[in-house]
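pinging the channel bc i need a second pair of eyes. not urgent but kinda urgent?? the chain im working w is below, pasted from the shared doc
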Amino acid sequence: MLIILFVVGAVAMRFLPHAWNFTPVIAMLLLAGVFMKAKQLWIPIAALVASDVALNVWVYHVSGGADQYFTWAAYLVVLALALFALKGRVKVPALLGTALASSTAFFLISNFGVWVAGEMYPHTLSGLATCYLMGVPFFRNAAIGDLLYTAAFFGAYALIEQQLRQRQLAREVAA
């Protein structure tokens, strides 16, 4: 249940004003990948897909293009990174490394989608290079946000879990 609150919070934060690409999405996916059961991992993906559709319609007034599928694929890659790189061993260096790897993977996949599915850049190697180059400022914000939110989400999760365990122990001792 606690992870669901993080999912809802992360999705809600996407609708608040924020710097470009400075969102808790990667941190939430990493947290979900580490602490949710495999059969529940559809929940954060469904929440992100629904919020992407809502943002496109209500905020940006566009219909999501084919590049949106690449974004959704990137979400799955981040979950996979969490599952395989962090499951069972959440140590700070591994966590920060996985957050940075997730930022990089998301950048590479989503920008590739913009290039492949869009009309903004020519469909040449030079166009792909330009697409990635133009995305660098967004990547900087994303990487910083991903690292900060990952530290905050995992730190908050650990503190809340510790508080819940202490309360449970106090109840057991009192009983």
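so Helices lie at 2-13, 25-35, 42-59, 67-86, 92-117, 125-174. and The CA atoms of residues 40 and 111 lie 28 Å apart. — does that match what u expected or am i reading it wrong
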